[in-house]
Design goal:
Layout lengths: L1 E4 L3 E3 L3 H8 L13 E6 L3 E6 L4 E10 L3 E6 L7 E9 L4 E9 L3 H27 L1
Antiparallel strand pairs: 1-8, 2-8, 3-4, 4-5, 5-6, 6-7, 7-8
């Protein structure tokens, strides 16, 4: 497994509010980069295409109230992965981080690690923008 950690971001909202937002996949579209097309979501699942790359799907796996949401690959993803949204409540603000664990073969790891790193960093930055905006 390849572990890819996003940067930590400080969001000026309580963890409960962020947790509620992230618990609904319909909100995730607001966090996606412009290269993501064909977005489809329900409360518990989503699927989308990254232009020129692959179609990915995710579903909820488990949640720890107000602190952690674990998502897993679903459908025809080219590799299996888990994405954890970690929230550390500091009162009126929250430290947020995304952790991606992906089952990448050596060739795929070489090609995909940097884009995946950029992706998780973008997710937390967009989360901050959306929550504070």
């Amino acid at each position: 497994m390849t572990e890819i950690n996003s940067e930590h971001v400080d969001i000026q909202k309580p963890a409960k509010e962020i947790f509620i937002f992230l618990s609904d996949f319909n909100n995730f579209e607001k966090l996606m980069p412009e290269q993501v097309v064909n977005w489809k979501s329900t409360n518990d699942t989503c699927s989308f295409t990254i232009k020129g790359m692959a179609t990915l799907g995710m579903r909820h796996q488990s949640m720890v109230e107000h602190s952690e949401i674990n998502l897993v690959s679903d459908g025809s993803a080219p590799f299996s992965f888990t994405l954890s949204c970690l929230l550390d409540d500091k009162g009126n603000n929250t430290d947020a981080q995304m952790k991606l664990n992906a089952d990448l073969n050596p060739m795929l790891k070489m090609m995909a690690k940097k884009p995946l790193q950029n992706f998780v960093n973008l997710l937390v930055k967009k989360l901050k923008e959306v929550m504070e905006g």
